[in-house]
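Lab meeting, item 3. Inverse folding demo.
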């Protein structure tokens, strides 16, 4: 507000006071002329209130004083309002009351001003936090992208020995752990800043749960734990839900269970139940860990809270907080049932809808690593617009090793110029760059000749969904977030260009061997019965003892059984045992 506006407002306050008094007096002439000399202050009390709320205590008191002068020197009937000592006393009471009303109005105005200022400060702090988050997300994820990317590339090199591969695995695991910590902090900060939104889409819940178990099984096995997946009811093939947030909350719950369990195992259960006309997805994570006391259960979902010996626990203490916030955001609820020393059960209940299809391209990770392009395809030109050398080097190496022709621009302006000479089929565009950012570069490319046909995908460390929307509105076709997996890059190119790849064949040892019923029939009957009983009960420790006995009797058969037992795929073994039992009875005299 400039000086002219302030000056105009100050004078308006003093104009309002006599104007309101004149209106109050006019009301005594009409329509309140029937009151004559009775209740002289009936129209002036509201006048003082309005004036005080508009201009503060000073204008309120001024209006009260002008009202008193009007009553003393003016009357609608020609006879004075003030005729005796009682009338003067009434006027004194009116003035005192109006003074108190004016000071109360002043207090209200000041409280309103303080609230408005506090709101502006909060909004400014919120904007600053958003800027901080966007910056930190970019600055932390960008080097992590290079660390994880190059370590994965080096692990696939044929010339490295087992010790080097083991060291690279340590680097990769440490980088992924650091990424999970960063994600926890950024997710919590986004929740506090009100920047978290649901992105509802179709997903396959059974496939999602299997992926999570496969992802975390190695972590469980490192601690000697059994990680089981149990589908408790019939589940639709596809449901409508926020897949990323559902994955994150389940991963957090299972990871937390593994972290606090030292023996036994962890079970992930999922199913659906009907609630009237709606459908709800029920997820349970049960462990045989240390358990949680009643006192800790009341605060376990608070930020930075960890139970047990916190000095020996890894993590930020934000995992369960994020679970609670995501569940609330999705309209569900989360409960805990735990007994110290016996374990815990976390139960999540979410509203979902049945979807027709997944709508997303399936991942081709099972087909192996991309090692080239199928013959008979065009020579695809790819432009990378990225300012960080380690990141464009990683992406360039990844693409060139697959057979793409690649050029690099280190800022948006250079990318616009190179587009006109290189004429790429596809552009990988970073968002934050010097000289010209990726959003502006995309707008300019789209305005050039041939710019509407080229496919452009953001590859950025941006943390917010609204920034992704900004990039898509600017003309980008897709979005890949750093740090990325190689499969995400190749899947995106296949989606927009229709590229077909040559894949590295998976090692034959990873394929489960068919089980020979004849080999099982050669085992002692007691050992076969123990094997069947162990699988039916699910006693992992007992099954390990039985496997050692089978290995002594028939090492080849033990090798056949091991992959199935490792993946808890008991049904083929039970069927083979049934066939072996029938063959044994048929061969008996």
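The presenter then showed the designed sequence:
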């Amino acid at each position: 507000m400039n000086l002219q506006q302030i000056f105009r407002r100050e004078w308006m306050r003093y104009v309002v006071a006599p104007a309101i008094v004149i209106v109050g007096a006019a009301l005594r002439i009409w329509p309140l002329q029937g009151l004559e000399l009775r209740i002289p202050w009936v129209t002036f009390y509201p006048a003082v209130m309005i004036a005080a709320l508009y201009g503060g205590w000073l204008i309120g008191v001024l209006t009260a004083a002008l009202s008193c002068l009007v009553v003393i020197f003016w009357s609608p009937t020609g006879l004075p309002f003030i005729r005796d000592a009682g009338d003067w006393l009434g006027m004194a009471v009116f003035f005192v009351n109006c003074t108190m009303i004016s000071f109360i109005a002043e207090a209200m105005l000041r409280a309103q001003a303080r609230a408005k200022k506090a709101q502006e400060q909060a909004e400014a702090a919120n904007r600053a936090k958003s800027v901080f988050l966007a910056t930190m997300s970019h600055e932390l994820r960008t080097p992590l992208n290079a660390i994880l990317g190059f370590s994965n590339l080096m692990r696939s090199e044929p010339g490295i020995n087992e010790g080097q591969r083991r060291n690279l695995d340590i680097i990769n695991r440490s980088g992924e752990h650091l990424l999970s910590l960063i994600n926890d902090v950024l997710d919590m900060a986004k929740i506090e800043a009100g920047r978290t939104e649901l992105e509802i889409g179709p997903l396959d819940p059974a496939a999602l749960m299997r992926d999570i178990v496969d992802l975390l099984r190695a972590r469980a096995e490192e601690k000697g734990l059994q990680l089981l997946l149990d589908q408790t009811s019939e589940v639709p093939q596809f449901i409508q839900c926020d897949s990323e947030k559902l994955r994150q909350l389940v991963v957090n719950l299972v990871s937390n269970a593994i972290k606090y369990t030292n023996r036994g195992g962890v079970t992930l259960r999922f199913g659906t139940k009907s609630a009237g006309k709606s459908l709800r997805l029920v997820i349970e994570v049960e462990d045989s860990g240390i358990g949680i006391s009643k006192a800790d259960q009341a605060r376990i979902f608070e930020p930075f809270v960890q139970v047990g010996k916190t000095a020996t626990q890894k993590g930020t203490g934000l995992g369960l907080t994020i679970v609670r916030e995501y569940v609330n955001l999705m309209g569900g609820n989360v409960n805990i049932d735990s007994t110290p020393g016996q374990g815990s059960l976390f139960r999540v209940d979410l509203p979902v809808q049945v979807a027709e299809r997944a709508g997303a391209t399936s991942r081709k990770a099972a087909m192996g690593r991309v090692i080239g392009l199928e013959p008979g395809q065009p020579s695809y030109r790819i432009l990378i617009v990225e300012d960080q050398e380690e990141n464009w080097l990683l992406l360039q190496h990844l693409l060139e090793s697959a057979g793409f022709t690649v050029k690099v621009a280190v800022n948006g302006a250079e990318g616009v110029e190179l587009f006109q000479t290189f004429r790429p089929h596809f552009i990988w565009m970073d968002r934050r760059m010097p000289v010209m950012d990726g959003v502006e570069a995309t707008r300019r490319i789209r305005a050039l000749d041939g710019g509407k046909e080229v496919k452009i995908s953001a590859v950025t460390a941006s943390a917010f969904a609204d920034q992704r929307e900004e990039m898509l509105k600017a003309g980008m076709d897709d979005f890949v977030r750093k740090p990325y997996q190689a499969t995400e890059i190749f899947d995106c190119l296949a989606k927009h260009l229709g590229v077909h790849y040559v894949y590295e064949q998976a090692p034959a040892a990873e394929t489960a061997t068919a089980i020979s019923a004849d080999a099982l029939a050669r085992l002692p009957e007691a050992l076969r019965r123990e094997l069947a009983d162990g699988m039916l009960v699910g006693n992992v420790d007992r099954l390990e003892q039985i496997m050692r006995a089978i290995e002594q009797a028939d090492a080849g058969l033990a090798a056949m059984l091991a992959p199935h037992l490792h993946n808890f795929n008991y049904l083929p073994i039970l069927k083979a045992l049934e066939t072996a039992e029938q063959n044994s009875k048929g061969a008996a005299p």
